[in-house]
Amino acid sequence: MKSDQALWNDLIERAREARSRAYAPYSGYAVGAAILDAEGRVWTGCNVENASYGLSLCAERVAVARMVAAGSREIAALAVATRDGAPPCGLCLQTLIEFAPADASSLGVALAADEGHPRVFSLSDLLPHAFRTSRLRRTEAEGRSV
């Protein structure tokens, strides 16, 4: 079994590899992501831009889509590689929270830049007041069905 440091090193390397395949002709900002799922499998993604910017896909959401398409539903860890170590955008954070453990503080997110040491945050650090599915559930006491 890999040590925590070896696991993070592997995820970061896989995110960097994915970043090398990014399609970012408009922004020039390549991003790679590597997700470790609850079963120990790794899913990667890179950003895929489009001339109609709203149609672009973020690396993190591509990795989530690959994970879900394969039947997995829970993220255990995530590494994101960019030139400057930027965190995921708000859309990606909300997508990640959908597949995070109930305690999002247990999901580590490594942000790796081209230089320097990666920084590791919890998903709840990056999205402290997440909108969770529990907010969609209504009780009979409220006069609505669950």
TrEMBL record:
<keyword id="KW-0862">Zinc</keyword>
<feature type="domain" description="CMP/dCMP-type deaminase">
    <location>
        <begin position="6"/>
        <end position="134"/>
    </location>
</feature>
<dbReference type="InterPro" id="IPR006262">
    <property type="entry name" value="Cyt_deam_tetra"/>
</dbReference>
<dbReference type="GO" id="GO:0004126">
    <property type="term" value="F:cytidine deaminase activity"/>
</dbReference>
<dbReference type="InterPro" id="IPR016192">
    <property type="entry name" value="APOBEC/CMP_deaminase_Zn-bd"/>
</dbReference>
<keyword id="KW-0378">Hydrolase</keyword>
<feature type="binding site">
    <location>
        <position position="92"/>
    </location>
    <ligand>
        <name>Zn(2+)</name>
    </ligand>
</feature>
<feature type="binding site">
    <location>
        <position position="58"/>
    </location>
    <ligand>
        <name>Zn(2+)</name>
    </ligand>
</feature>
<dbReference type="GO" id="GO:0072527">
    <property type="term" value="P:pyrimidine-containing compound metabolic process"/>
</dbReference>
<dbReference type="InterPro" id="IPR050202">
    <property type="entry name" value="Cyt/Deoxycyt_deaminase"/>
</dbReference>
<dbReference type="GO" id="GO:0042802">
    <property type="term" value="F:identical protein binding"/>
</dbReference>
<protein>
    <recommendedName>
        <fullName>Cytidine deaminase</fullName>
        <ecNumber>3.5.4.5</ecNumber>
    </recommendedName>
</protein>
<comment type="similarity">
    <text>Belongs to the cytidine and deoxycytidylate deaminase family.</text>
</comment>
<comment type="function">
    <text>This enzyme scavenges exogenous and endogenous cytidine and 2'-deoxycytidine for UMP synthesis.</text>
</comment>
<keyword id="KW-0479">Metal-binding</keyword>
<dbReference type="GO" id="GO:0005829">
    <property type="term" value="C:cytosol"/>
</dbReference>
<dbReference type="GO" id="GO:0008270">
    <property type="term" value="F:zinc ion binding"/>
</dbReference>
<feature type="binding site">
    <location>
        <begin position="47"/>
        <end position="53"/>
    </location>
    <ligand>
        <name>substrate</name>
    </ligand>
</feature>
<feature type="active site" description="Proton donor">
    <location>
        <position position="60"/>
    </location>
</feature>
<dbReference type="InterPro" id="IPR016193">
    <property type="entry name" value="Cytidine_deaminase-like"/>
</dbReference>
<feature type="binding site">
    <location>
        <position position="89"/>
    </location>
    <ligand>
        <name>Zn(2+)</name>
    </ligand>
</feature>
<dbReference type="InterPro" id="IPR002125">
    <property type="entry name" value="CMP_dCMP_dom"/>
</dbReference>
<dbReference type="Pfam" id="PF00383">
    <property type="entry name" value="dCMP_cyt_deam_1"/>
</dbReference>
<dbReference type="GO" id="GO:0055086">
    <property type="term" value="P:nucleobase-containing small molecule metabolic process"/>
</dbReference>
